[in-house]
């Protein structure tokens, strides 16, 4: 999983290797942040630990496409296909993850160099861990990226957040029963993307989606202390239980949009066993970037499907600046004058987190902020093309929503008019401009 990913990244000339010793408190995170968590970096020397650390793996869209063996044009339909046509995984008797098993005197901070990222963070945090549980009704595997605050030795606080996961735990808690969990570190791009698909929405087993996405069965082994399966080739697995009727303060923590999330009481996990490969590589993600790109890709699928029932949609982009969830740009092939407004309604109604959307024509590159700004400036008028919906549901991850508990949503129709009026918006072009080779004129230009 992770090791084959690092080999691919080296072949792609995308992997940076840091031989300078770094401190896991602040310094390691600062290096990742410098590259906006978009450049994969392997830290070979971390102060006070023999364990290597890797971060920034899955934060760049083009690199992520390459690791998934897809491209921008086929991404939406590839993701739709694997959700609709998941494939069986494979249970194997053993794997590299079981090369080392620790079941006594567990002290996570002594075993692994777990980073503290930002000044007011309450502790060090595991930020790239994928939590796996079983659906109590179906037995399907549910995986999701969660953050885990290190409380000391073998105890962590868990921000479980997901409504489905929370409800399942609360039902067990009523019976005074713990929830079996495992935390997985050292995984590849298919495993991460599969974790971002909603089991609640699609009723899928995440491991089966992974198998379809990677084009072969995901190989899994049984855990030692809990009734769960984990990838045979992952780097690190922590086995444990979410303890009923026990909470601890979790946070503050530097969150998705660059603000500190509030401290609150959250359930705790007691880690009973640690498995890891020989010479394990500890995986980190600077908060909270990597899983949000993959999450944004799945949100693009859902946004596209919501829109194509209303308009002739070209492409969608759930934006990086909006945390891969709050803002979107959409291109449409406009057939009727109401299409732009219909697209706004469909987009803002597709997901409660979506706060702002801009609708443009297909001649606008929605991945270029310059083009979007140009379209808004030249093809919209606020009195006619701005749609405001007051007091909708939003997300607590966005602090202006947190102040009020509701969110105003905005759509901008930056499409040009149809018919004769639309002729005034014809873009000036230079014939064959796209074929010009600037190196013929300036051979040494970079």
UniProtKB/TrEMBL annotation:
<dbReference type="InterPro" id="IPR049381">
    <property type="entry name" value="UbiD-like_C"/>
</dbReference>
<dbReference type="Pfam" id="PF20695">
    <property type="entry name" value="UbiD_N"/>
</dbReference>
<feature type="domain" description="3-octaprenyl-4-hydroxybenzoate carboxy-lyase-like Rift-related">
    <location>
        <begin position="92"/>
        <end position="289"/>
    </location>
</feature>
<dbReference type="InterPro" id="IPR002830">
    <property type="entry name" value="UbiD"/>
</dbReference>
<feature type="domain" description="3-octaprenyl-4-hydroxybenzoate carboxy-lyase-like C-terminal">
    <location>
        <begin position="295"/>
        <end position="414"/>
    </location>
</feature>
<comment type="similarity">
    <text>Belongs to the UbiD family.</text>
</comment>
<dbReference type="InterPro" id="IPR048304">
    <property type="entry name" value="UbiD_Rift_dom"/>
</dbReference>
<dbReference type="Pfam" id="PF20696">
    <property type="entry name" value="UbiD_C"/>
</dbReference>
<protein>
    <submittedName>
        <fullName>UbiD family decarboxylase</fullName>
    </submittedName>
</protein>
<dbReference type="InterPro" id="IPR049383">
    <property type="entry name" value="UbiD-like_N"/>
</dbReference>
<feature type="domain" description="3-octaprenyl-4-hydroxybenzoate carboxy-lyase-like N-terminal">
    <location>
        <begin position="6"/>
        <end position="81"/>
    </location>
</feature>
<dbReference type="Pfam" id="PF01977">
    <property type="entry name" value="UbiD"/>
</dbReference>
